[in-house]
Design brief:
Elements lengths: L5 E6 L7 E2 L2 E2 L1 H17 L4 E5 L10 H17 L4 E5 L6 H5 L2 H5 L3 E4 L10 E5 L5 E7 L5 H4 L8 H28 L7 E6 L1 E2 L10 H6 L4 E2 L10 E5 L5 E3 L2 E6 L16 E7 L3 E7 L5 E7 L1 H14 L3 E7 L8 H9 L4 E8 L21 H11 L7 H17 L11
Parallel strand pairs: 1-4, 4-5, 5-6, 8-9, 9-12, 10-11, 12-14, 17-18, 18-19
Antiparallel strand pairs: 1-15, 2-3, 7-8, 13-14, 15-16
Bound molecules: manganese (II) ion (MN).
The site of manganese (II) ion has 7 residues, from loops.
Length: 419
């Protein structure tokens, strides 16, 4: 082993290609990658782990794919980070991620797009430049229902969920066991890290503005005790708020480097730096933001006063304005637009607070369908149909499940070829 401690950088949920209210986020992604490359150099990172949701959709644009391959190329050319491990998340297309896997493997970039029949396919032994094993990685991609569930004709929703949880736990344990068994055979015995993309029980998620439905969905929740305590670190993706899981410090979400919605604005975005020296230490590195996403609420005076402050700050900001008053809006819209004209503050969305909705008409805001997220559209649909409160949770759950299946639909897979 070299004298320098083995250093791992854990990130996830990049969602390359993400757009917000129709706006592309190219500058933000480029800014993040420049920073990340710098961080890899500064902290002398040996292994980079990316725990799923590389892309925002199963059919990412050419530009989004360029960003991904450009970044991988730059890391490889810098020659500092010896290995990159990528797993697919629920937003990724397994077949799209896997397509260049054999080429990338030649560059020590390891991609696991979907589970196979062989658990060994998800276990990697990474070696340093002299061939000494330095890390064992159990790389568990997002497990799709069709990968792990034996589908019965008459299963109830509760049976399905139970079976999904059991199967997911069994698979996690099988990968942990295989990774630990492979370590046993090595000398010296390196740390074992498990990667996964799933929803852990008790993790805190961003609420409101549709981020929950879009990004958390209806995935089953898995307890922290699914992972063997003999593993040295668990690098999770899927939840956008950085956090440890189930009170276990070694099981972590890194969170997304960029906020994916206005409600994620208040959070601190970071990546996790993990060192084994040989004692494990975990440090969160703050990801600087090219632009702030912010949601502000108020009546006429409140909104104008807050806007004036933001404009004065000179910061790059994308704003959501929530009008919280039962007074007619009159010319407020023009006034707000005038207040930000020529500044770095841009209003992306304006909407009415719940309490203002009955008093004012949505036309007041000149609202368009693309201003709404899918959850909001569904909620309004329930309102317009007069669906009673106690009937709603089941309908919303079913709707979220359909959304989830929509995201999981691997549009890149050719019929019959995809595993
Ligand atoms: Mn995800």
């Amino acid at each position: 082993m070299s004298e320098k401690p083995l250093t791992i950088l854990h990130s996830s949920d990049w969602h390359l290609g993400h757009t917000l209210m129709g706006r592309r986020r190219h500058e933000e992604f480029t800014y993040f990658f420049d920073w990340l490359n710098g961080a890899i150099k500064e902290h002398d990172v040996d292994v980079l782990l990316i725990s799923g949701d590389i892309f925002d959709s199963s059919m990412p644009s050419n530009h989004a794919q360029n960003l991904y391959f450009d970044f991988l190329t730059k890391v490889w050319q810098a020659g500092i980070c010896r290995h990159i491990v990528v797993i697919a998340g629920n937003h990724d297309s397994p077949s799209l991620l896997n397509a260049p896997a054999s080429l990338l493997k030649a560059l020590s970039i390891h991609v696991v797009g979907c589970m196979t029949e062989h658990v060994e396919d998800e276990v990697l032994v990474l070696r340093d430049s002299t061939g000494v094993p330095e890390l064992v990685v159990g790389a568990i991609p997002y497990l799709r229902e069709r990968d792990i569930r034996v589908i019965g004709e008459n299963d109830s929703a509760a049976d399905r969920e139970k079976q999904l949880i059991t199967r997911t736990r069994e698979h996690i344990r099988a990968v942990c066991d295989e990774a630990l068994a492979q370590r046993e055979k090595l000398a010296p015995q390196p740390p074992v890290v498990i990667m996964g993309h799933l929803h852990s029980s008790g993790s805190s998620v961003a609420e409101g503005d549709g981020t929950r439905a879009l990004y958390v969905g209806s995935l089953v929740q898995i307890d922290a005790d699914a992972y063997s305590p003999d593993c040295d670190y668990v690098a999770l993706g899927h939840i956008h708020i950085p956090q440890a899981v189930g009170g276990k410090d070694f099981i972590r979400y890194s969170g997304s480097p960029l906020p994916m919605g206005f409600r994620e604005d208040a959070q601190t975005k970071c990546v996790n730096l993990v060192r084994f020296a040989p004692e494990r230490s975990i440090e969160q590195l703050l990801v600087p933001q090219y632009r702030r996403l912010l949601s502000i609420t108020g009546d006429r005076e409140g909104l104008l006063a807050q806007l004036a402050e933001l404009v004065k700050s000179g910061e790059k900001i994308w704003l959501e304005l929530i009008y919280d008053s039962t007074e007619p809006m009159g010319d407020l819209r023009e006034q707000l637009n005038k207040a930000v004209a020529g500044s770095e503050t841009e209003i992306l969305r304006q909407r009415l607070a719940d309490k203002s909705l009955p008093a004012l008409k949505a036309e007041d805001l000149d609202e368009k369908l693309e201003d709404l997220d899918p959850a909001e559209v569904f909620r309004r649909r329930l309102d317009s149909k007069g669906v009673l409160a106690d009937a709603r949770p089941a309908l919303i759950a079913a709707y979220n499940e359909i959304l989830q299946q929509h995201y999981e639909n691997d549009k890149n897979a050719v019929e019959g070829v995809e595993k």
